[in-house]
Amino acid sequence: MILSAEEIKVLETYRLSTAQTNSPLSIRLDRLSEDSVLIDYVAKVRDRLGAANDAVAASMLIKRYSFLVAMSLYAMSVWNKRLVLSLERIWMETDDHDDRWLPTFRFEEPKTEICTGCRDQWREETVRQLFAVHLFPLIEKLRKITKISAHILWENIAIYIYWLYETLMNDETLAHVHEQLCDDFHYLVHDADGALFGTPRQNPLKRFWKGNAHPRQRSTCCLYYQTDGGTHCQTCPCIASQRCQAIS
Questions:
Q1: Pick from 130, 109, 98: nearest CA to 18
Q2: What's the average model confidence in pLDDT over 22-35?
Q3: pTM of the predicted model, to two decimals?
Q4: Alpha carbon distance 89, 159 (integer Å)
Q5: How far apart are CA 204 and CA 61, in angstroms?
Q6: How sure is the predictor about 17, in pLDDT bands with cuts at 50, 70 and 90?
Q7: What's the rounded mean pLDDT across residues 10-29?
Q8: Which of 18, 41, 115, 181 has the lowest CB atom count within 10 Å?
Q9: Where does the pLDDT of residue 135 fall: very low under 50, low under 70, confident under 90, or very high at 90 and above?
Q10: Which residues lie closer than 8 Å to 148 by C-beta, 6 or more apart?
């Protein structure tokens, strides 16, 4: 089943796009599975953002990539639909006229699979395909190529997921699926086995969960301050450390 025009409009909030660009930073996602291509792409991101090194560029790449995760989970929890994440049919597109690097995602065919049968089993498979099959290999390649901690990359993803569900659960227009949203969020953070994320030892979303306290302090620094014009985020652990040192 193809996404409707109305559904596409909704997912544009999470950077779904139908516009094709010809930027050097526009790339079909399956190309990123090739080490040489990924190394070159990380270098382009580094240059675009003025990042201090490849590790910083890798962190920023995953922060942008997290919106593909967000739109996939939105479709799962609100529509009971699974986006078909065929890497050879999805493009990350860049608008070179925008000073910021905020890529969008263009599906050659925005196909979905509707939940049939047992939703718990369907949800488990949706999570496995999104994380263990799709995302984990990219994270592992970035970790090996740039030497960045996988914890930073996973927390970059986790904070967007927390934000997504907290936003949706507070959206009165989605009251009809509120219970399902709460159940899916609890499952993702607390019940889903680490193997569904490609990390059998621990569910990475559970690792970084600190409850409903706001602002939610990060465990790792995303390294944004090491880009041109970048600063420490208000929830950065480096700021907390500096405050503690100042007090002592």
A1: 109
A2: 97
A3: 0.95
A4: 27
A5: 18
A6: very high
A7: 96
A8: 18
A9: very high
A10: 54, 55, 58, 59, 142
